[in-house]
Amino acid sequence: MEEIMSLTGKQKRFLRTQAHSMKPLFQIGKVGLNTVWIKEVKNALNKRELIKINLLQNAPSDTSEVREYLETKTDFQVVQEIGHILVLYRQADSEKNRDISIKLKEL
């Protein structure tokens, strides 16, 4: 797993601004988190770098448990947690998909 760069407050604000108008791309329901779900999220982050996920009412974990799991077991960074929504960031593996991370480095 690649070392995660820690984000500054300014960078997190930028990412939250970028994510504001996004719709959640993934949901966590009664099945909860599993390796297939994490793989799909990683693929999406490789293309977009920034996504929102939504925890449904029937999810077995609450938002803070999911946040803690994702931050410790994956290389995703949780940029924001509002209600049942989490905003995730991860630098894309491919340089052609690194629009957001290039802007982040300039901050």
Describe it for me?
The structure is a single chain. This protein has 107 residues and is of the alpha+beta class. 41% of the residues lie in helices and 19% in strands. A four-stranded mixed sheet has the order 1-2-4-3, sandwiched between helices. A hairpin with a 2-residue loop joins strand 3 and strand 4 (85-89).
SSE topology sketch:
Elements: H1 9-19, E1 26-28, H2 35-48, E2 50-55, H3 63-73, E3 77-82, E4 85-89, H4 99-106
Parallel strand pairs: 1-2
Antiparallel strand pairs: 2-4, 3-4
Instruction: Enumerate the strands of the largest sheet in spatial order, edge to edge or round the barrel.
Output: 1-2-4-3
CATH H-level homologous superfamily name = YhbY-like
CATH architecture: 2-Layer Sandwich
How many strand segments?
Answer: 4
Count of helices? Answer: 4
Low-pLDDT parts are none
Structural class: alpha+beta
If you compute it from the alpha carbons, what radius of gyration comes out, rounded to the nearest whole angstrom?
13 Å
- The proportion of strand residues reads 15-25%
Q: Helix coverage percent of residues?
A: 40-55%
**CATH hierarchy, class:** Alpha Beta
Q: Can you write the helix and strand succession as a string?
A: HEHEHEEH
CATH topology descriptor: Translation Initiation Factor IF3
